[in-house]
Amino acid sequence: MLRLTASITSSNIIVPQLRQFHASAVCCKLQSGRYKITPKRDRPLTYEMANPPYYIAHRKSWNSWDTTSLLDGQRAAETSVEDVFIRRFMTGTWHDLFCSEIIIKRQHNLIRIAGILRQGIPSRKMYFLIGYSEELLANWLQCPVKLELQTVENKEATVFKHI
Amino acid sequence: MLPRCLRAFSKPLCISFQESGILGKNLNRHLQFVGVNSFSSTRMSCMPQDVSLEKCSGKKDTLYKSVEIEIRSGEPAVLLSYEWFTSYAAKQLGITIGKCWAPPKAHHNRLTLLKSIHIYKKHRVQYEIRTYFRHMTYERLTESTLKTFLEYIQRNVPEGVAVKVTKKSVLNLPSSLSDSVRRLSIQ
Predict the structure, then answer these.
(1) pTM score, whole prediction
(2) Which residue from B187, B130, B131, B141 is spatially nearest to B167, judged by alpha carbons?
(3) Which helix (H) or strand (E) holds B136?
(4) Do the chains contact at B123 and A109, CB–CB below 8 Å?
(5) ipTM of the prediction greater than 0.85, yes or no
(6) Three-class SS of residue B165?
(7) Calpha distance A54→A49 (Å, rounded)
(8) Distance separating alpha carbons of residues B86 and A132, to the nearest angstrom
(9) B151 pLDDT higher than 60
(10) Interface touch A131/B15, C-beta < 8 Å
């Protein structure tokens, strides 16, 4: 504002160097997908958690693979809602057993759900839960659903670093 | 349920879908098969025991001059790998491989959104979604080869890859034109 008025009044006046400041400092920083360092440095992070979102497509890959976000992709919103539902259902059915993110892959109308589980329950119960999840999800989503789960002895196997 | 001659084709080529579950047979079975109908044969009587891919009717196969397959994905490495797979399959089936090329740049869909939920208009966040393309061309195919090839290709499409197929067929001259050609040649 001041610079504008100075130029209008006369042409021989030297325009002073004006410095500006912005008051919204809190909004500048990025905080999504990042974890704070603890004083004891004992918080475990998986590889996925350790890499912030700007590493997607460089060091990280996506959690749901489908054609909805491509050019001329159909049904983006419905697919996202289905993904959210699948992730909640899986986390709830396999309570506290998932050691990794739940990966959802779509090929034609087949949905493949992948993930790494902890061996917290006996294998008979696991087989039951696999069948149960596949049947119910196929019934709700009206398309074939396959679970491709891998197991790991304990959570430490998927820990990448401690922060 | 399915006629006997179709039973050989009722199993998908590579992916097998689990049908029976804890609560009984999966009733979504009809949703699981992609393109089985393209293998239909017209009469049951012509193939009692052995199975053959020839059509029983006297109709001739349409000939295709070229088939162009355009694939799109968010990852160029996946497209490269799929192209290698389709070209290898084409080579095994004896199909001539035409020009396989990719445009040098991807399509970027960019969004500039507000970073905060309330006020702070000067602070924005930019996202971008890239679509990479690749084109593969295969030349001089018959209809049955094309159907087999496309069925195999499309069943093994990786997740997150969209396929668009453009076929160019060869037709006879329309009868009016061919008559006039014949008349001219007689003269």
Answers:
(1) 0.72
(2) B141
(3) strand B124-142
(4) no
(5) no
(6) strand
(7) 12
(8) 36
(9) yes
(10) no
